[in-house]
Amino acid sequence: MQKLLIHGGKPLHGEISISGAKNAALPILCAALLTDESLQIGNIPVLRDIETMLTLLNQMGVSVMLSDHNASDITLSAKQLNNPIAPYEMVKTMRASILVLGPLLARIGQARISLPGGCAIGLRPVDQHIKGLQAMGAEISINHGYINAVAKKLQGTRIVFDIVTVTGTENLMMAAVLADGVTVLENAAREPEIIDLANCLIAMGAKIQGAGTDVITIEGQSSLHGAKYSVMPDRIETGTFLTACTATGGEIRLNNTSHQLLGAVIDKLTEAGAQINVNHNQIHLIMNSQPRSVSLRTAPYPAFPTDMQAQFMALNCIGAGTAIITETIFENRLMHVQELKRMNADIEVEGNTAIIHGISHLDGAHVMATDLRASASLIIAGLVAHGRTTIDRIYHLDRGYENIEQKLSILGANIQRIN
Ligand code: UD1
Q1: CA separation (Å) from 235 to 99, 273, 376?
Q2: Is 50 within 8 Å of 26 (Cβ atoms)?
Q3: pLDDT tens, residue by residue, 364-388
Q4: CA distances from 290 to 130, 167, 217, 251, 339 (A)
Q5: Cut 0.70: pTM above it
Q6: Is a pLDDT exceeding 70 seen at residue 120?
Q7: How far is Cα 340 from Cα 232, in angstroms, rounded to an integer?
Q8: 267 contacts: CB under 8 Å, gap ≥ 6
Q9: Ligand 1 center to residue 179 CA distance, Å?
Q10: 121 lines ligand 1 (CB under 6 A)
Q11: Cβ(375)–Cβ(396) below 8 Å
């Protein structure tokens, strides 16, 4: 099994490019199911989750063509969809597989998807996806661990989500673009990835208004056509590098990204002492002092993202003062605390709240990644720690960060992957 080896204590300096957003690319790949014409998608990050989604789509009958010149350019054609099934083996490794449900029902009226189980960070049910599709007229039964769904023709309707769900909003938006009549999604998620998906669907001929607000109105069309679309930059990858440099000190410039996607994160980094300058697709950060501790509470966009919580936990470990972090989205997303404590961090946990007393330095240690963003948190901790840190189970990291150790090496970190 591969591990990361980090010798901490070096500030980050230099310039790198940010990859396309995993959480935008995954639903956009599924949008290819909505048309029999080709969808050409650019700025796709090279990640394990993307590979899994391409394999899933391919075994359903979607042809996948990778560009000879550019690994981030992919053309999909779902002319033939002869196997609308998402098997357990794939769904268990990537919950976002549920995103094929809405498009399959809308386009061919049937789908059989393995029920995503609980996963490390929480229970994560899909009741809102199912409730919405049933309201649109789908008949859904669950047996032997599979969601079996059929629909002659989905009908537009008003759907009010009980809770704000990102993939739930995306699934229903994709179902609604080919439904009969108008669908109104209320209490919809407002994440930038939803706007990106909506823009791709609009390029394919869909009629969607309000993406990025909590009410999205979709006027169903009889068919969608092919399009060419480029995925937005990854705001979580951007935020992770910014947080790493705020922790280590130094000066970095991130290209091909957008500060507009990161309001709450940039505010917190500034509060921690980072000097941040932005222009339209670059972010420049300088940090030349010990970070101040910053308290935060995760919540749906535009508030502070749960996907940045673990990285800020690492930052606060060496902050001046005490910080309180409350996780409100997932019930079990503080698993990195135990590992950070192995590095001498002073953290108390009460329910979903962590109280972090900043200390002058962390000690390098042997730690284990428990989920994707927890892995990023341990890397940040390793970068600031005295001595050597070894991180096990980095397959989590490869699901969501493109070439992270190469990018950190460019910035001067002493980090390597070992077998
Ligand atoms: C997406 C992101 C993930 C991010 C999360 C929250 C993708 C591929 N993943 O995950 O990186 O951490 O948003 O920003 O985009 N819930 C229900 N019933 C449902 C659906 C969700 O109870 O039917 C609950 C979940 O258990 C969770 C909360 O709602 O507590 C939010 O989950 P949701 O927004 O759906 O997360 P994902 O879309 O899975």
Answers
A1: 20, 20, 14
A2: yes
A3: 999 999 889 999 999 999 999 999 9
A4: 48, 38, 47, 14, 22
A5: yes
A6: no
A7: 32
A8: none
A9: 24
A10: no
A11: yes
One-letter identity of residue 248: T
Q: What is the DSSP letter of 76?
A: E
Cα 61 to middle of ligand 1, angstroms: 28
Name residue 122's beta-bridge partners: 119
If we measure between CA atoms, which residue out of 138, 79, 132 comes closest to residue 109?
138
Query: Residue 185's closest CA among 196, 193, 174?
Result: 174
Strands 139-143 and 146-150, how do they pair? antiparallel
Neighbour count for residue 182 (Cβ, 10 Å): 15
> Which among 318, 268, 397, 391 is positioned nearest to 11, based on CA atoms?
318
**φ, ψ (nearest 5 deg) of residue 52:** -60, -45
- Residue 268: exposed, middle, or buried by beta-carbon count in 10 A (0-12, 13-18, 19+)? buried
Is 258 close to ligand 1, i.e. is its CB under 6 Å away?
A: no
**284 DSSP β-pair partners:** 253, 277
Asked if residues 266 and 294 have their Cβ atoms less than 8 Å apart, the reply is no
Q: Is 119 among the residues known to form the active site?
A: yes
Ligand 1: does its nearest atom lie under 6 Å from the Cβ of 124?
A: yes
**CA–CA distance, 287 with 285 (Å, rounded to integer):** 7
Taking residues 105-134, report their average pLDDT: 86
Q: Whose CA is nearest to atom 9 of ligand 1?
A: 23
Q: What is the torsion angle, in degrees rounded to the nearest 10, for the CA atoms of residue 399, residue 403, residue 409 and residue 415?
A: 40
Q: What is the pLDDT of residue 240?
A: 98
Cα 6 from Cα 384, distance rounded (Å): 10
Tokens standing for residue 188 = 């919809």
- Say if ligand 1 is within 6 A of residue 306 CB: yes
Residue 363, token pair as written in the block: 């000690």
DSSP 389-406: EEEE-THHHHHH-TTHHH
- The DSSP 8-state label assigned to residue 201 in this structure reads H
Q: Is residue 156 within 8 Å of residue 176, measured between CB atoms?
A: yes
pLDDT of residue 61: 97
- Would you state the pLDDT for residue 122? 62
50/398 Cα distance (integer angstroms)? 10
CB neighbours of residue 89 within 10 Å: 10
Q: Whose CA is nearest to atom 31 of ligand 1?
A: 165
| Cα gap 360→376, rounded to integer Å | 21
Q: Which residue is it, tokens 């929480």?
A: 122
| Distance (Å, whole) CA 369 – CA 336 | 7
Q: Is 363 helix (H, G, I), strand (E, B) or coil?
A: strand
Question: Could you give phi then psi for residue 61, rounded to 5 degrees?
Answer: 120, -5
Ligand 1 center to residue 411 CA distance, Å? Answer: 32
